[in-house]
């Protein structure tokens, strides 16, 4: 028999609030199948225990799921009965309109559980980097390649500069290498493989790949073997000289000032400080922005441009997973204006109901005047409301103005009722009372909501 504390669970009159993860988790104290499906997994999927058999209900969409079996994935069972559940879309990114929700295999519950634990502070990443400290030196890594297979297409010097050292297997000849920083291993090298690209493809969060200072010790010997009797590339003049007699779609001076020198291979360049490489450049791309986008931890970049600039680039144009792939994934804030609306901040503003044309114009004007975009969507929205950069606001059609104001006041979830609830602690004002009842995370920033305050418009 269910515990008497579950007497209020079935009530849907608003008295019992199941939006908090802890509250849902507590409801499973008498759940009969906790050995088959853990209470934490069910609660994380938005469910609370109804007190009847093994039936659970979503606090958001109110759908009930039962008949649980060993191996069931709560989020996927939830998606099957309620693909449009607002909680699934916000908290688990399971949007039926994105074309992926039907593919069960693309959901990694274990990875999401780890991300949830890290985000809530249940688990703290206390890993000490680098993982293999005695291989911090490029010379030390190069010395491991004495018996590198002659048939392997990847060059030892390229592997070394990508943070990798040779780890042969005792029972057979292989081309296995390991990163001194993250400890990740790679093998099976093929013609055309680029060590930086492969490293970033499989270990995209490696601090060395991201350009952080993890103690890497560059070697003049390695660079001489790679590029001949080349200078250290620490000065602007040395880097500029590396482009002599070479064709490149980007100004040689701009590349050199951003810390890059030519490797001698087509348009590929490398940062003298962090070792990050980029190739397949587009004529409209900005070297500083590409540097910040792909290698945000580079100490030279941070010293020259500052953390604020790096944050602006990272927030305005997410980093590609492949650091040597064409950098056209991002945009040059000065020259690729047409892609401004692809930024996360612009998409959030449009999703909140603001006029896309106005959003684009204000972002471009901000970039033109300050050379930097917006780092927070709140700043963009404030400038929109205050009419900053809006030179034609006085001449705009009053009816159109009224239309825009009315649209901006609508709930960004249902787009029917007016906004009336402020979420605490993030302070976002985005939903009506009805829609706010079904969320425990802010739809804008996904911060956990601790309080919902009713507002009244004059």
TrEMBL record:
Ranges for domain RING-type: 411-445
PROSITE patterns per record: BIR_REPEAT_2, ZF_RING_2
Biased composition (Polar residues): 315-332
EC number annotated for this UniProt entry: 2.3.2.27
One term under GO cellular component: nucleus
Any matching Pfam family: zf-C3HC4_3
Family stated for the protein in its record: Belongs to the IAP family.
Name by which UniProt lists this protein: E3 ubiquitin-protein ligase XIAP
Native species: Pygocentrus nattereri
């Amino acid at each position: 028999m269910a515990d008497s504390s579950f007497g209020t669970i079935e009530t849907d009159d608003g008295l019992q609030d199941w939006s908090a993860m802890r509250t849902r988790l507590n409801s499973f104290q008498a759940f009969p199948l906790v050995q088959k499906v853990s209470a934490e997994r069910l609660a994380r999927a938005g469910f609370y225990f109804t007190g009847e058999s093994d039936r659970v209900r979503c606090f958001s969409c109110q759908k009930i799921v039962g008949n649980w079996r060993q191996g069931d994935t709560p989020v996927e069972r939830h998606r099957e009965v309620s693909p449009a559940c607002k909680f699934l879309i916000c908290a688990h990114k399971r949007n039926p309109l994105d074309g992926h929700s039907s593919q069960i295999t693309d959901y990694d519950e274990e990875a999401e559980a780890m991300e949830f634990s890290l985000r809530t502070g249940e688990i703290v990443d206390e890993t000490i980097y680098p993982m293999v400290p005695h291989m911090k030196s490029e010379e030390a890594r190069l010395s491991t390649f004495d018996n590198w297979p002659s048939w392997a297409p990847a060059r030892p010097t390229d592997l070394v500069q990508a943070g990798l050292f040779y780890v042969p297997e005792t029972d057979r000849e292989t081309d296995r290498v390991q990163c001194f920083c993250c400890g990740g291993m790679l093998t099976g090298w093929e013609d055309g493989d680029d060590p930086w690209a492969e490293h970033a493809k499989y270990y995209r969060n490696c601090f060395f790949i991201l350009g952080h200072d993890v103690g890497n010790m560059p070697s003049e010997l390695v660079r001489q073997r790679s590029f001949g009797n080349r200078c250290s590339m620490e000065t602007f003049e040395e880097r500029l000289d590396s482009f002599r007699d070479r064709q490149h779609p980007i100004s040689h001076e701009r590349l050199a000032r951003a810390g890059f020198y030519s490797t001698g291979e087509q348009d590929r360049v490398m940062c003298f400080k962090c070792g990050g490489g980029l190739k397949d450049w587009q004529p409209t791309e900005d070297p500083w922005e590409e540097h910040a986008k792909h290698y945000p931890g580079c100490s030279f970049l941070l010293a020259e441009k500052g953390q604020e600039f790096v944050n602006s680039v990272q927030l305005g144009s997410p980093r590609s997973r492949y650091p040597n792939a064409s950098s056209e994934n991002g945009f040059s804030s000065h020259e690729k204006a047409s892609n401004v609306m692809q930024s996360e901040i612009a998409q959030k503003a449009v999703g909140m109901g603001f006029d896309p044309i106005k959003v684009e114009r204000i972002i471009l004007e901000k970039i033109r005047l300050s050379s930097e975009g917006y780092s927070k969507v709140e700043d963009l929205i404030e400038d929109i409301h205050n009419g900053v950069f809006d030179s034609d606001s006085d001449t705009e059609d009053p009816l159109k103005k009224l239309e825009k104001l009315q649209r901006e006041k609508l709930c960004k979830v249902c787009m029917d009722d007016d906004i009336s609830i402020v979420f605490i602690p993030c302070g976002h004002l985005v939903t009506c009372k009805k829609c706010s009842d079904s969320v425990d995370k802010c739809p804008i920033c996904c911060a956990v909501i601790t309080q919902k305050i009713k507002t009244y418009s004059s």
